[in-house]
Write a structure and sequence with these properties.
- With 265 residues, chain A is mainly α.
- Chain A is built from 13 helices and one strand, in the order H-H-H-H-E-H-H-H-H-H-H-H-H-H.
- Chain B has a single domain, classed as MetI-like (MetI-like fold, Orthogonal Bundle).
- Chain B has a two-stranded antiparallel sheet.
- In chain B, strand 2 and strand 3 form a beta hairpin.
- In chain B, helix 7 packs antiparallel against helix 10, helix 9 packs antiparallel against helix 12 and helix 11 packs antiparallel against helix 12.
- Classes of the chains: A mainly alpha (265), B mainly alpha (287).
- At the A-B interface, helix 1, helix 4, strand 1, helix 5 and helix 6 of A face strand 1, helix 1, helix 3, helix 4 and helix 5 of B.
Chain lengths: 265, 287
Amino acid sequence: MRRRYLIPLIYSLFLLLPIYWLVAMSFKTTNEILGGFSLFPQTFTWANYITIFTDPTWYWGYINSIIYVSLNTVISVVAALPAAYAFSRYRFLGDKHLFFWLLTNRMAPAAVFALPFFQLYSAVGLFDTTIAVALAHTLFNIPLAVWILEGFMSGVPKELDETAYVDGYSFPRFFVKIFLPTIKAGVGVTAFFCFMFSWVELLLAKSLTAVDAKPIAATMTKTASSAGYELGLLAAAGTLTIIPGAIVIYFVRNYIAKGFALGRV
Amino acid sequence: MKTVNQKAWFFVLPVLALVAFNALIPLMTVVNYSVQETFGDNLFFWQGLDWFEQLLRSDRFHAALGRQFLFTGMILAIEVPLGIAIALAMPRKGFWVPVFLVIMALPMLIPWNVIGAMWNIFTLPGIGLLGYLMNETLGIPYNMTQDPVAAWITVVVMDVWHWTSLVVLLCYAGLVSIPDAYYQAARIDGASSWKVFRYIQLPKMRTVLTIAILLRFMDSFNIYTEPFVLTGGGPGNSTTLLSIDLVKIALGQFDLGPAAAMSLIYFAITLLVSWLFYTLMTREQAK
């Protein structure tokens, strides 16, 4: 049976190798990086991290990113819940077309929308705010959220709804008190995916911000070009962007195995 | 099965309003640009369908489109079988299962430009671990900033590194839902492991696998940030995929008309292929 662990083990090592290199780099000085090859940091330094935590343009990048990702997750899940319920329980005029149209927005290349988004959000006066990025990211996150939630909701038998109505529950009370707790794993998985796709996206986030709401990823690209090529600093900033993701994975670790099937097994 | 209820439209309204605001207005802007010529200062001239005609004849567009299909084809051909194989090899329970799953989910939660930067640092000759191993230890000349083949391999390996886990996790979720009784029955019947895979595991994975392929197709076809940060589309134009070329035209050269026409054709191709997948998928479910 030990052979069973071999393939996932090799694959995991392959996944961890570039990440290790990024983390190792972040503890090296620029001289050491450019001076030659070393597997472990020889002159271990926290300097790169200290720079990030003391420079407002750096740490505000993180704060901005976390703000718009959280906003986006909340907006996407809350808006998608009733819609997913409608798709999973009812037939209505144009439902299939509507569902596919929603999905088409998940397919839209971000590059196509970058410029018109800039113009649209400038026109409504939201340019360079975190809310603009949060709203823009709903373009691909809402369709995904509706898709995932619909899968989980369809797995809940309709009898649950009917019994609740017989028991005299009103719809809003049924939805919040009975239905939501039943699909809470689905809500968790949906929130996870919304967080994930909003956190990793850069092109739209960058086009919609200038100074005040600049996300961390954009701060990094700016630094990479302007400050020569400070690999150590870049590596430290990169390492820090992995941490929020790692925390979120830790919270959903028990749902990963089943939840990734998006309720469709 | 489902009841007909037109009031369900009210449930869909918030989603509709948000997505319409984000999708329809920018899309109309793009359509508007695609039929006009501009010389700046907000002066626009009617151009008709010229941009579309020019684009469909242009070698540059054909080359970018060809590279895009090659890239998407390659990563699907590697990630899907590899993902299935790893999912099958995963232990079903035990202490290490959550550890593996967490490690596998990790690359997917790293911002895309960090992925590009990380692989850049990883592959730098003389500085990066991979670059050093290849050049100094193994003696294979490897420099992806100069050699188009090396650049291609690096971009593909990076995507395999980044996204194979999505296929693994989706397939694994399908596999763990198979009751043990199925396997016991197969063992009693003396079924070979190939038969178990073909008639028990594959059917159970079919839906999740379709989702995985659909997501991988859409996202790899729209890929921009990771290869842009890693290679900048180079050396030369060798790794200039569709999105990279589009951004070059739209924001680099500020040729709004051609860029808009290209956007629409690009979007149409993505839609067409995804629609084919979607129809096949829903047809399977309907059966």
